[in-house]
Automatic annotation (TrEMBL), chain A:
<dbReference type="InterPro" id="IPR002888">
    <property type="entry name" value="2Fe-2S-bd"/>
</dbReference>
<feature type="domain" description="2Fe-2S ferredoxin-type">
    <location>
        <begin position="1"/>
        <end position="75"/>
    </location>
</feature>
<dbReference type="InterPro" id="IPR036884">
    <property type="entry name" value="2Fe-2S-bd_dom_sf"/>
</dbReference>
<dbReference type="InterPro" id="IPR051452">
    <property type="entry name" value="Diverse_Oxidoreductases"/>
</dbReference>
<keyword id="KW-0560">Oxidoreductase</keyword>
<keyword id="KW-0408">Iron</keyword>
<dbReference type="GO" id="GO:0016491">
    <property type="term" value="F:oxidoreductase activity"/>
</dbReference>
<dbReference type="Pfam" id="PF00111">
    <property type="entry name" value="Fer2"/>
</dbReference>
<keyword id="KW-0411">Iron-sulfur</keyword>
UniProtKB/TrEMBL annotation, chain B:
<dbReference type="InterPro" id="IPR036909">
    <property type="entry name" value="Cyt_c-like_dom_sf"/>
</dbReference>
<feature type="binding site" description="axial binding residue">
    <location>
        <position position="341"/>
    </location>
    <ligand>
        <name>heme c 3</name>
    </ligand>
</feature>
<keyword id="KW-0813">Transport</keyword>
<keyword id="KW-0349">Heme</keyword>
<dbReference type="GO" id="GO:0020037">
    <property type="term" value="F:heme binding"/>
</dbReference>
<keyword id="KW-0249">Electron transport</keyword>
<feature type="binding site" description="axial binding residue">
    <location>
        <position position="212"/>
    </location>
    <ligand>
        <name>heme c 2</name>
    </ligand>
</feature>
<feature type="binding site" description="covalent">
    <location>
        <position position="64"/>
    </location>
    <ligand>
        <name>heme c 1</name>
    </ligand>
</feature>
<keyword id="KW-0472">Membrane</keyword>
């Protein structure tokens, strides 16, 4: 089957129910997307599919054929994604960094749908887990981005 | 009244009581007739063993009579009755603790009539009102399998904790007289062989009605075949809602084709749904092992059972929904549920089931929706391979209020029209299904 990832076409040979995460990391070597729980609970594996954030560990690969997939490797090609990464750098959000590609995806998807989210909306959308506890830094960065927009 | 007359009347009365008591005692411990009563043990035909093993799969004996990690069929599953707890028994051919001493006729009386050797009545947690329909050939094969295909295991049965006098078994004989049929399945000449085979499996060995047919006050299934409208019309038990298997548009199988029913029973999933709750066990232990022709027969039979629009409500139709509503239920849905079930509620068939049009989102009973959100689904094991995807438990992550909000959102979006879910109902089921609580739900039926 053919997948479109980061504006590029990839031929992959996988069972229909293989999780997209396995294909991205193991078959295509795009290892910026991380494996945390495999159960849709942590968000480390988040990618964008047609601009929506999805957890690739629970996405059967057959379901995303013909759709536009974006991983962390290409997030800066997106205007919103680029601003998010910049804010992440400015606020030095990452500690170990393991969860951060997923966090950036979640923030990007949020701001694409809602450029100026309220505090409650940010709270509700940014639910990925971070073992290092960088939640405060994440919140500051997203609030900063939301403020830039509403200002 | 003179003293003498009084004494005479009292004497007659006492005699009548005695006769009645005698009759009752006879009735309540009577050995039902078995066609095998005169039969001598024959030599074992190995093809009968494998045939019997298949009948045991159809009948899902293992679901109650085995515990994970213990010897197969050695019993032990704890089940609740209205009176107290009982435990499934050892049905391995062990002589002392199992059924090794049973003759074919003894076995027949237990399976089809609920009577153990000596006349002791079994509790109808054993679905003998359904197994009564089993054919003589299937009973014989089943017996051969249990005697020669199962390893004997020495494991004493656990006595029930039902207190005296409720633990007296003779009233069950009266219950049987009213509620338990005694005849084997009789083919309907007006229907073809496929339909009749399906009816046989569904009503008999498959005992689908044990979960899917609502029960009456005496805990009896309200109907045991298609002649009764409540048959397989959906029922609430064990903290799950077993949906209708009739042609109900919302809560039944009206939207499922025959091949889709076959696929569901064979692989555990189809475009409409994935097995969960108690059905996951029925799938893991029983339906996936059924032969394709038998599954086709079940599908044919189920598709012949009419629905009831009065019970089922307005037929569901998909409605587009604003996927970024600013309400708590929608937020939780977007972050916790949408990865698998989709912002559009359409899921990722047949791997992740749609919630748009799902029975759990349309049924009046919301137990299944709450239970699976709190506790997740069991692993589905098809042909020995565990599936890649499974509903996780949200018990630790979402409060009663949050679960009520997100379920109310699901049940009122994409054309779904189930009632809103109340946080109290979530709290109640959370308590009942907490493995650490002192009053966990105990299984009632399988
Ligand atoms: S790895 Fe996918 S959500 Fe945790
Ligand atoms: S930065 Fe280490 S897990 Fe989030």
């Amino acid at each position: 089957m053919e997948l479109r990832i980061n504006q590029k076409a990839y031929q992959v040979d996988a069972d229909a129910d293989t999780p997209l995460l396995w294909v991205i990391r193991d078959d295509l070597g795009l290892t910026g997307t991380k494996y945390g729980c495999g159960l849709a609970q942590c968000g480390a594996c988040s990618v964008l599919v047609d601009g929506n954030v999805v957890r690739s560990c629970v996405t059967p690969v057959a379901g995303v054929v013909g759709r536009e997939i974006t991983t962390i490797e290409a997030i800066e090609a997106d205007d919103v994604g680029k601003r998010v990464v910049a804010a992440w750098v400015e606020h030095q959000v990452a500690q170990c960094g393991y969860c951060q590609s997923g966090q950036v995806m979640a923030a990007t998807a949020l701001l694409k749908h809602n450029p100026a989210p309220s505090d409650a909306q940010i709270e509700a959308a940014m639910v990925n887990l971070c073992r290092c506890g960088t939640y405060n830094a994440i919140r500051t960065a997203v609030h900063d981005l939301a403020k830039q927009e509403s200002a | 009244m003179s003293n003498r007359r009084f004494a005479r009347t009292a004497g007659w009365l006492a005699l009548a009581c005695l006769v009645a008591a005698g009759l009752l005692a006879w009735y309540a411990t009577r050995q039902p007739a078995s066609p095998f009563a005169q039969e001598q043990a024959a030599s074992v035909d190995p093809s009968q063993v494998s045939r019997g093993e298949y009948v045991a799969r159809l009948s899902d004996c293992v679901a109650c009579h085995s515990l994970a990690g213990k010897a197969p069929f050695a019993g032990g599953l704890e089940m609740a009755t209205p009176l107290g707890t009982i435990h499934a028994t050892n049905i391995t051919p062990d002589h002392d603790t199992g059924i090794g001493a049973y003759s074919l006729a003894d076995f027949d009386r237990a399976v089809r009539h609920g009577v153990a050797p000596g006349g002791r009545r079994l509790y109808p947690a054993m679905p003998y009102p359904s197994y009564a329909k089993l054919s003589d050939d299937d009973i014989r094969a089943l017996y051969t399998f249990f005697m020669h295909g199962v390893q004997p295991a020495k494991q004493p049965n656990i006595p029930s904790d039902i207190p005296w006098p409720l633990n007296l078994r003779w009233p069950i004989a009266l219950w049987n007289g009213v509620f338990a049929p005694t005849a084997t399945y009789a083919a309907k000449p007006s229907q073809d062989a496929l339909w009749n085979r399906g009816a046989y499996i569904v009503q008999g060995p498959g005992h689908c009605g044990s979960c899917h047919t609502p029960r009456g006050l005496a805990f009896n299934e309200k109907a045991l075949d298609e002649s009764g409208a409540p048959f397989l019309a959906g029922a609430l038990l064990d903290g799950w809602y077993a949906p209708s298997l009739r042609q109900d548009h919302n809560t039944g199988l009206a939207r499922w084709s025959e091949p889709q029913i076959v696929q569901f029973l064979k692989t555990g999933r189809n475009l409409h749904a994935v097995v969960y709750g108690s059905m996951a066990e029925a799938f893991n232990n029983s339906t996936q092992f059924m032969q394709d022709e038998d599954l086709a027969a079940i599908a044919r039979y189920l598709k012949s059972l009419p629905g009831d629009p009065r019970r089922d409500g307005t037929p569901w139709q998909y409605v587009n929904a604003d996927t970024h509503q600013d309400i708590p239920g929608a937020h939780t849905y977007a972050t916790r549920c949408a990865s698998c079930h989709g912002l559009d509620g359409k899921g990722q068939p047949e791997w992740m089931p749609p919630l748009a049009g799902a029975t759990s989102a349309l049924a009046k009973e919301n137990a299944s929706a709450i239970n699976i959100t709190l506790n997740g689904s069991q692993r589905i094991i098809t042909a020995g391979v565990p599936d890649a995807y499974r509903m996780p438990a949200f018990r630790e992550q979402l409060s009663d209020e949050e679960i009520a909000q997100v379920l109310s959102y699901v049940r009122s979006t994409w054309g779904n029209h189930g009632d809103a879910v109340d946080a109290k109902a979530v709290g109640k089921l959370r308590g009942h299904t907490d493995p650490a609580s002192s009053s966990p739900i105990i299984l009632q039926m399988r």
